[in-house]
Amino acid sequence: MNNRNILRLCNRLILPNITSARYKGYKVIERPDPKKFKMPSAADAPSVMEILKEKIRLNGPLTVAEYMHIVATNPTEGYYMKKEVIGEAGDFITSPEITQLFGEMMAVWFFSETRKMGPGKPLQIVELGPGKGTLMVDFLRVLHRLGYESQDLSIHLVEISSTMQNVQASRLCATYKACDIDSPHNCEGETVSGIKVYWYNDLKKVPQAFSWYIAHEFFDVLPIHKFQKTDNGWKEILIEIDEANKLHYRISAKETASVQMLIRPPLDTGDRTELEISARGLGVARQLATRVDQDGGIALIADYGHEGEKGDTFRAFHKHQVVDPLENPGTCDLTADVDFSQLRMAASKTPSDENYAVVLGPVTQKDFLERSQAPVRLQVLIDSAKTEEEKEKIKSAYAMLVDPQKMGERFKFMAYYPSTMAEILEKYPPLGFSSQKSNE
């Protein structure tokens, strides 16, 4: 009997038994119920530093983006997950916390620009990174005066921190509850006047409809990749553990995947030797641009940043002071200046792309507020003050927003409009972005 016949005989004799054994050995394993998952207690959870060092030991050096993501969002020890971080008692303060005028002027701006499109009802207000909810409180006060009722609008907040969600709910809602895990939103509530409020952990889950998108000091905390130009081309800056068991930077020996994916013309042209790119930020910018073009609405981005002239801006804040971002991770705010030139490239209308936003700006916060007639509102607040001390506080707060040496020049505004608005904006210049007075 030749070899081929022997193999055929063996197959007939053996394979049925193997199949039978595999079949009889199969067991149905019950999947765990996500609704019964529990987070470890604070006492049992490792520190952020321990998490980072163990990850480096197992997988090698971290990118700056990986480092920022872990430090900010670790479920038990992440910076934004544990405590309220905004305000005088926190590590930084934002414009809405300084004066009510800031949120009021943004609401007036959205209302004015929406009138160029139509009635703007029904309306979704979508805020990315709502902070303590202060800006939205000021928003709603203005919209009430402008005739918006509870049936005209809903509020959609993109927030990953349950701690901050509770803070926001306490400011905004009369009722508030967590939702089933199968729901697209994590929590929902209702204001005293009956406006529905929803919380999400991702912009993708927010319903697509005519919306006002607000991203105030949101992009600056999104993870960035840092790159250095060397004699051998662009290399990524990584974070590893040194001989003293401390975190430190080093340049990658080889070209990383991030270099190949993110560094493209025109970013790699000219005499730049340092780059910071947020893949997450570019993705969100593209989402906003696509949404306003497909569903209508406007997106307004307000953040501190530049137009591509800076290279190394990664830093940390603790108790309102700049500190080393690699020291005491999880206890300080990690941030980087927003490169508005990159946000423009991610969102601008170009042939063959699916995003079609008309991009305006950036303009400085000083110019945006003054062109939006903020001094008029300032005078009303001053005239309404009962004491000279109150008047001085109002003036001082406004000065903080517009003084070039404080927030006036460092903070910038950028807006996304639907592509169909291009000709209308030529006729009716956009409020805040043009030195011309709007015809509205």
Instruction: Give the helix proportion (percent range).
Output: 25-40%
Strand content: 15-25%
Helix segment tally? 15
Shape: globular
Annotated CATH topology of the domain at 79-218 and 293-304 and 350-426: Rossmann fold
Supply the CATH architecture of the domain at 79-218 and 293-304 and 350-426. Answer: 3-Layer(aba) Sandwich
The total of beta strands comes to 18
Specify the structural class: alpha/beta
Mean pLDDT: 88
Biggest sheet, open or closed, and with what strands and sense?
Answer: 10 strands, mixed
CATH superfamily of the domain at 79-218 and 293-304 and 350-426: Vaccinia Virus protein VP39
Assembly state (oligomeric): single chain
Unreliable stretches covering 5 or more consecutive residues: 13-23
What does the model show?
This protein has about 450 residues and is of the alpha/beta class. It has helices spanning about 5-25, 50-60, 65-75, 80, 95-100, 100-115, 135-145, 160-170, 255-260, 280-295, 340-345, 365-370, 375-385, 390-400, 420-425; strands at about 60-65, 125-130, 155-160, 175-180, 185-190, 195-200, 210-215, 225-230, 235-240, 245-250, 275, 295-305, 315-320, 320-325, 335, 340, 360-365, 410-415. Strands 2, 3, 4, 5, 6, 7, 12, 16, 17 and 18 form a ten-stranded mixed β-sheet that branches. Strands 1, 8, 9, 10 and 11 form a five-stranded antiparallel β-sheet that branches. Strands 14-13-15 form a three-stranded antiparallel β-sheet. Strand 9 (about 235-240) and strand 10 (about 245-250) form a beta hairpin. Belongs to the NDUFAF7 family. It catalyses: L-arginyl-[protein] + 2 S-adenosyl-L-methionine = N(omega),N(omega)'-dimethyl-L-arginyl-[protein] + 2 S-adenosyl-L-homocysteine + 2 H(+). Its EC number is 2.1.1.320. It comes from Plutella xylostella.
